Amino acid sequence: MDYLQIKKAGSLHGEIKISGAKNASLPLIAMAILAKNSVSIKNLPHVADINTLLKLLSNLGAKCNRGEEITTIDTSSLSETKATYDIVRTMRASILVLGPILARFGHCEVSLPGGCAIGQRPVDLHLKALEQMGAVINIEAGYIHAIAPNGLKGCNIIFDKITVTGTANIVMAAALAEGVTTITNAAREPEVVQLCEILNANGVKIDGIGTAILTIHGTDGKLIHIDEFSVIPDRIEAGTYLCAAAITRSELTLTDVNAGHLGAVLSKLQEMGSKFTITDNTITIHPSEVIKAVKIVTQEYPAFPTDMQAQFLALATQANGTSIIEERLFENRFMHVSELQRMGANISLNGHVATINGGTKLSGTDVMATDLRASSALVLAGLVAEGITNVHRIYHLDRGYDSLEKKLQNVGADIKRLKE
Ligand code: UD1
Asked: Is 170 in the pocket of ligand 1 (CB under 6 A)?
């Protein structure tokens, strides 16, 4: 198994190119199931989760060709409709194939994803919405069995909670359904917006894109032709490198980035003392010697993203004063706290609220990554900890960060990948 060894960095300098967004790529790959042509996708990140979903589609009979620049997905030969446990257990987002496969073939089986390190993460809202569209769903022996022999029908869906992959799944199901589907309380994340924009540009009319009410005009089972497109930049990867700059008090420029997707993150960094120069596709962060304490509450987009909570928590350990971070989306998303405490951080946890007394010196030691974003928080801490930090179990990190150690090495960090 690989691990990362990090030695305390001076300041970082230079440019980091941001990769395509993992969380945008996953639904966009699943969307290829709705297409009659071979779909060409540019700017897919080179991360394990993307390979997992491509493997899932290949197992079902699709032809996937992963290129350096362009990946093609041809689902015309897709014949299997069962997403098995061995793949779903490695990536919960596999549930994204349920909506499009059910809409196209009238039946689909997907292994139940089960819990994960950051919480229970049920998929009940996906299933309830599909049932409203006419699907009959049974859970048997750990599998979701869904059938819709007469196809899916448009209807009014009101999500009890905002769900990102739930919204994407139902948008894709509604794209091939008969009639009009309205989703109220839809997710407004840029990743959902891109999915809707691409469908809308390729023959599935969608009103209300980027708002909480989406109206999808289904094609009544007709597959669509999807033109080549490029995945939006990864706002969480970008936010992570902005935190790397802030924690090491460095000036860094991110390229191929969309600052418009990073409103809440930039605003919190600004409160903490950072300044920015922003162009159409770059962000330069200017260091601040004194990092100020902050109050953060994670919420759905456009508010502060839960996927940036761990990184800001690491940054807050170096702030002057006491920061408060409240996690509202996932009940168990503070696994990085105990590892940061082992490095010397002064953090107390009370339910879903972390109180971070900043200004402590961190010391390098062996720490264990527990989930994707927790892993990057440990890397950030390692950049400023005295001595050597070894981050183990980085397969979590490899799920979602494209070439993290190379990108950090290029800007002067002392980080290397080693074998246990
Ligand atoms: C997506 C992102 C993940 C991010 C999360 C929240 C992808 C591949 N993953 O995950 O990185 O952290 O959004 O921004 O895009 N819920 C239910 N029932 C459901 C579905 C969700 O109760 O059927 C709850 C969840 O447990 C959670 C909340 O709703 O508390 C939001 O979850 P959701 O938006 O669905 O997260 P994901 O789409 O899984």
From this structure: no
